[in-house]
Design brief:
alpha/beta, Aminopeptidase
């Protein structure tokens, strides 16, 4: 298991954010993104399962508590070509970009996983969820797979009465 102090963890999160920014995948295409996140979760000792096609969930339990919370990050990109060639982490894919901060969402989720696996100062279960196809604007993409992803997330992943937390990224601020 990895162990980072705060400055190293912050640098690691920026590194992951930049890597994910360079390799964006749109909704239901997040195969490499999903594999990247799953590998990181497994390195921290968590078992990972897929939901809704390319989505992921990993659970961490501690103590005897029966409560659960979900920490959720979106992972899909938009169909946009990035116009910032001066950045070393500019999107490497034509017409795919993390323009809305999902690369940051995923990096923050991975940071939260690290903090929870290292401290284990809670009583219950934390479910770390990487959600697929949040940004899909096309009705045909909001198919059975998308509905299944939402069903899994709301009912079988978190459980009844569980709280879920997600983040919003203000992308105009420097990394």
């Amino acid at each position: 298991m990895r162990s980072f102090g705060a400055p190293v963890l912050q640098a690691e999160m920026v590194h992951y954010s930049h890597h994910l920014h360079q390799h964006p995948e749109a909704g239901f295409e997040e195969f490499k993104t999903s594999a990247f996140i799953a590998r990181w979760l497994e390195e921290l000792g968590l078992s990972v399962r897929q939901i809704g096609g390319t989505g992921l969930v990993a659970s961490l339990s501690c103590g005897s508590g029966t409560g659960a919370i979900g920490l959720r990050a979106d992972m899909d990109a938009l169909y946009i070509t990035e116009a910032a060639a001066d950045r070393p982490y500019t999107s490497a894919r034509l017409c795919r970009m993390h323009a809305c901060g999902h690369d940051g969402h995923m990096a923050m989720l991975l940071g939260a996983v690290h903090l929870h696996t290292g401290g284990k100062d809670f009583d219950g279960t934390v479910r770390f969820v990487s959600m697929t196809a949040c940004l899909s604007a096309f009705p045909s993409m909001r198919s059975t797979r998308y509905a299944l992803s939402l069903y899994d997330f709301n009912d079988s992943i978190l459980g009844l009465g569980a709280a879920c937390f997600a983040s919003i990224v203000r992308t105009r601020l420097p990394a």
